[in-house]
Design a protein that fits this description.
Helix content is 29%, strand content 22%. A 4-stranded antiparallel beta sheet has the order 1-6-7-5, with no helix packed on it. A 4-stranded antiparallel beta sheet has the order 2-3-4-8, covered by helices on one side. The protein has 2 domains: 137 residues, MutM-like, N-terminal (N-terminal domain of MutM-like DNA repair proteins, Alpha-Beta Barrel); 139 residues, Helicase, Ruva Protein, domain 3 (Orthogonal Bundle). With 292 residues, it is of the alpha+beta class. It is elongated, with a radius of gyration of 21 Å. Helix 1 packs parallel to helix 6, helix 1 runs antiparallel to helix 7 and helix 5 packs across helix 6. The longest helix has 22 residues. It contains 9 helices and 10 strands. A hairpin with a 4-residue loop joins strand 9 and strand 10. Keywords: DNA damage, DNA repair, DNA-binding, Glycosidase, Hydrolase, Lyase, Metal-binding, Multifunctional enzyme, Zinc, Zinc-finger. This is Formamidopyrimidine-DNA glycosylase. It catalyses: Hydrolysis of DNA containing ring-opened 7-methylguanine residues, releasing 2,6-diamino-4-hydroxy-5-(N-methyl)formamidopyrimidine. InterPro entries: FPG_cat, FPG_N, H2TH_FPG, Ribosomal_uS13-like_H2TH, Znf_DNA_glyclase/AP_lyase, Znf_FPG/IleRS. One of its GO terms (molecular function) is zinc ion binding.
Length: 292
């Protein structure tokens, strides 16, 4: 799943490649992924891209038009299996809805463009044409950005206070903190030497300090790694930078212990027992359900 660093990499790429270009094509291939109707998605045609921005894990392309004081934003969320494929020369082939992983095709007046694609059978990629980003419900519900200038250590402490929720879930909850998903929550907790099952409300001052520092450092380093890379290279850059996520069975780069996994219905978490849980092996939730 693309998370904040990869999304920021895509935003930076789109800002460099599309700013000032005019939208010449908007082809809907998966109508179920289109979540708005006013303004219509084809109202983007003929408008010029004026900015690219990130809101949590949402990508926002702002378009303007001479004689029209208002902007129209193309906003999209790549969900678990979505991605953006960029083409310096966009194909002229006709998209056949239902016969392709493409959900949306956007073309520009210099011949370039991109496809939003989604793998697998469970479709959750979404795109919107809106007059303001806050018109997208998912953006309206977002918590603060952990790299925002106002996100201080005490901001995090206030968000954690009183929450009898596992810290892994708090980090992934977009309404609490925007932009962090399954992968980077694993990495942050490993860097903070903290169990994913620790309750947010029980963290002491030193643990909050470690968590804050780990969050800022982990995300900043990942964004630095993503900066300047084209979309095709961002996924590999993400994988290479992981210490524990997706590394089950490998050695922890800090202590050399074996990286372990806990599996859930539709995802898993990875952690190092020595670094994070005092050597304790966390129970596999799939096996726990079978034993009930």
């Amino acid at each position: 799943m693309p998370e904040m660093p990869e999304v920021q990499g895509l935003v930076d790429f789109l800002a460099e490649r599309t700013n000032g270009l005019t939208v010449t094509k908007v082809a809907v291939a998966n109508i179920a992924a289109l979540k708005t109707y006013d303004p219509p998605i084809d109202a983007l045609t003929g408008r010029r891209v004026s900015a690219a921005a990130r809101h949590g894990k949402f990508i926002d392309l702002e378009t303007t038009s001479e004689g029209d004081a208002g902007a129209i934003h193309l906003v999209f969320h790549l969900a678990k299996a979505g991605w953006l494929r960029w083409y310096d020369q966009l194909a002229s082939t006709v998209i056949r809805p239902g016969k392709t992983p493409i959900a949306l095709r956007v073309g520009f007046n210099d011949g370039s463009g991109f496809d939003l694609t989604e793998a697998g059978t469970k479709k959750s990629l979404a795109y919107y044409a809106v007059r303001a980003p806050q018109d997208v419900p998912g953006i309206a519900r977002l918590g603060p950005d952990p790299l925002g200038p106002d996100f201080a250590r005490d901001t995090l402490a206030a968000l954690l206070a009183g929450r009898r929720t596992q810290i892994k879930g708090v980090l992934r909850d977009q309404s609490i903190i925007a932009g962090i998903g399954n992968a980077y929550s694993d990495e942050i907790l490993h860097a903070a030497r903290m169990s994913p099952y620790a309750l947010a409300a029980t963290l002491d001052e030193a643990e909050v300090d470690r968590l804050y520092d780990a969050m800022r450092a982990t995300i900043t380093e990942a964004i630095t790694e993503a900066t300047g890379k084209p979309p095709a290279d961002l996924k590999d850059a993400k994988r290479r930078g992981m210490a524990v996520h997706g590394r089950r069975g490998e050695k922890c780069p800090v202590c050399g212990d074996e990286v372990r996994s806990v599996f859930f219905a539709d995802n898993s978490l990875e952690y190092c027992p020595t670094c994070q849980t005092g050597g304790k092996i966390l129970a596999d939730r799939r096996l726990s359900r079978l034993l009930k």
